[in-house]
Design brief:
With 265 residues, this protein is an alpha/beta fold. It has one domain. It contains 8 helices and 7 strands, in the order αβαααβββαββαβαα. A 7-stranded mixed beta sheet has the order 1-7-6-5-4-3-2, with helices on both faces.
Length: 265
Amino acid sequence: MANITRSSKAGSDWTPNELLAYNIRVVYQDYETFFKLSERFPPDVRHKEVLTLQDPSEAAHDDTYVLLRTMALAMNPRHGQESAVADYAVVLFKCLQYIGDLTALVPRTRMSIPFWVCGQEKLATADVCLVDDTNDPGVLVQEDKQHMDRPNSEPQLIASAIAALSNINETRLRTLGRDTIASKLIPGITMKGTMPVFYKIPVTSDLVRAVQLGEYPAQETVVYAHLPPVPRPARRYSEGMVPLDNRKIVISCYGAFRRFLFGLT
């Protein structure tokens, strides 16, 4: 695919064509292979009632009440109200202890990350980004906006991951006075309503440079993805995390995915 035309595009405009143009392939894996676990991770939440309640009015904790309310809003966001999905993701991350003292990560929404594409500076915008104390991206979340006639969210997420490593190295070199790193696994999630797809995105400095120069990388980048194994896959997106059986499975996946925040591959 070296002869595919490459042009300078913002991350929000990336399509599957850009993945082909930069030698990037997405491979979907089952639970055991993706998470490298022989047994399913137990659902781990701050308040166990998250696993058993449907009605927000029955919640004993404010976190659970807010989670169930924002879950309902995120299930079918209207045009112009897409922030409901990002709002839900932030609340969910709090309930699942992705943010705070344990991880040293805090959430940002609609974070613009600059990167160079074909010799021009562009922006990749993550709907939700968990950042560390140097403001470097740790986890990226991209909402599926195909209902708005926007491109597939998968290439947009990968563009944000490429931008993330570029900025991590810029911070290391020009702010912290440290050596740059040759590669980093960037954990990412796409969300359609409340249903996630999980990604492990290995970004290298060679890939960052190829995108910067608009060149075809000799080395293929393989991104691994996982669809939570919900019991009714055909209704995956229409049901989301509302049914309790779906919710327990998806939260199990989120629990296992936390391992990748700490550099485990």
